[in-house]
């Protein structure tokens, strides 16, 4: 008889975005390793992005439990639907450009909803799941955050039932970039740190997605910490043909601070200096892009060379990855973001499209790209090197020799990663 593991997650199809993929794929492959997943999700969530196509990826034999959740973001929509959607999706405008409503919402979110806006789901979930766990002989509970309030469900279940509890952190807690933008009072910041410490010191095992986060958490807890990155899954896609134009594509959200002036500047210079480059180059923006980033891009790149595609389904995003000539991966230039490894990186690596990444030095992303030979990584102030690389890539595109030669990708397959998870369970 397979072992049962209860997975507590907020993001689940039809939610869109990268937060869904990790546990959707773990659930897909866990039965191959003798584990039956039971997935606990909110009945009436407020998802900022939807992707109905992901419903097709849910395994037929998975057990899914649902309970109602109180969603403050739905109430906030009464005052400003756009501000609520923007903040809930993680796109926080710069302080100087925040409206009064946005400032108020950020203050309320940071100081009254600790650790996050889904805190009201904790108490009823603990009550419901305590009975379910006893009745169905659940052996392991796994919580995944953000939202980090879900870890509090695991904390209380551990205290009440003494069950084995694994806490999965897709992102850090108190050191993630947006945490500093929540206008936290000293008291609120202290509460976050206290909750984080409780989780890190009580969970039987902690899973993180990057080496830098492992280092951070290992300094805060004596509990074992294991790195299980995100990964790629094999997808049946229609045959794709590379874009005829020299397309440089960014897929995913571009937050206000994910905005490398050096990149936009050198692309603008190449457009000005080479008429043939200007004729064929296009910057494809696929996903949510903040106004701050768009305004900066338009300072250097003409509208004729910009294609704003907007949000697309996951399957459509995979097609764009394969069609484009280069793939951009951009992270905020901050010490706090060295540990962030976007889930799309692993899909980029198997897309047979070279990656151009821009971010902070010594990041986990830099190490992965170098070790897999899937692209080049640059700092925010590497203008000459970045310009030279983009131009050499353009020259290779003209000769039809622009390609990647990756190595060691199998370790990042979803099935291989799930085998590692199954070992912990």
TrEMBL record:
Instruction: Cite the Gene3D superfamilies for this sequence.
Output: Glycogen Phosphorylase B (3.40.50.2000)
Q: Which GO terms describe its molecular function?
A: glycosyltransferase activity
Per its UniProt entry, which superkingdom is the organism in?
Answer: Bacteria
Q: What residue stretches are annotated with the Glycosyltransferase subfamily 4-like N-terminal domain?
A: 107-235
Alphabetical keyword list: Transferase
Q: Which InterPro entries match?
A: Glyco_trans_4-like_N
The positions making up the signal sequence are none
Output this protein's name.
Glycosyl transferase family 4
Q: What is the originating organism of this protein? A: Gelidibacter sediminis
Lineage of producing organism: Bacteria, Pseudomonadati, Bacteroidota, Flavobacteriia, Flavobacteriales
């Amino acid at each position: 008889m397979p072992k049962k593991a209860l997975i507590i997650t907020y993001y689940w199809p039809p939610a869109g975005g990268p937060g869904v993929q990790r546990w959707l794929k773990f659930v897909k492959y866990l039965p191959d390793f003798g584990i039956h997943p039971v997935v606990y999700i909110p009945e009436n969530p407020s998802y900022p992005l939807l992707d109905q196509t992901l419903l097709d990826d849910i395994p037929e034999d998975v057990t899914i439990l649902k309970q109602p959740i109180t969603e403050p973001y739905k109430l906030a929509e009464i005052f400003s639907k756009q501000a609520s959607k923007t903040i809930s999706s993680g796109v926080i405008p710069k302080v100087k450009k925040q409206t009064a409503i946005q400032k108020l919402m950020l203050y309320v979110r940071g100081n009254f909803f600790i650790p996050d806006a889904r805190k009201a789901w904790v108490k009823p979930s603990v009550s419901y799941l305590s009975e379910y766990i006893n009745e169905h002989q659940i052996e392991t509970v796994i919580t995944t955050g953000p939202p980090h309030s879900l870890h509090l469900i695991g904390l209380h279940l551990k205290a009440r039932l003494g069950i084995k509890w694994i806490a999965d952190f897709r992102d850090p807690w108190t050191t993630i970039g947006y945490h500093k933008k929540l206008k936290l009072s000293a008291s609120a910041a202290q509460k976050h740190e206290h909750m984080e410490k409780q989780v890190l010191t009580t969970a039987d095992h902690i899973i993180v997605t990057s080496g830098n986060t492992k280092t951070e958490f290992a300094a805060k807890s004596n509990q074992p910490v294991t790195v299980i990155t995100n990964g790629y899954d094999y997808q049946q896609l229609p045959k794709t043909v590379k874009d005829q134009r020299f397309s440089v594509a960014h897929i995913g959200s571009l937050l206000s601070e994910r905005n490398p002036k050096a990149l936009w500047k050198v692309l603008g210079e190449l457009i000005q200096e080479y008429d043939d480059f200007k004729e064929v180059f296009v910057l494809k923006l696929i996903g949510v892009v903040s106004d701050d980033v768009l305004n900066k891009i338009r300072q250097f790149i003409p509208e004729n060379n910009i294609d704003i595609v907007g949000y697309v389904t996951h399957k459509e995003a995979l097609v764009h990855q394969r069609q484009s000539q280069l793939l951009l991966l951009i992270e905020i230039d901050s010490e706090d973001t060295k540990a962030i490894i976007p889930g799309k990186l692993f899909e980029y690596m198997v897309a047979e499209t070279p990656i151009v990444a821009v971010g902070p030095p010594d990041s986990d992303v830099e190490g992965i790209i170098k070790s897999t030979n899937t692209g080049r990584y640059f700092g925010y102030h590497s203008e000459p090197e970045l310009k030279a690389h983009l131009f050499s890539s353009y020259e290779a595109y003209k000769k039809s020799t622009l390609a990647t030669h990756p190595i060691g990708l199998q370790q990042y397959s979803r099935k291989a990663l799930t085998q590692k998870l199954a070992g912990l369970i």
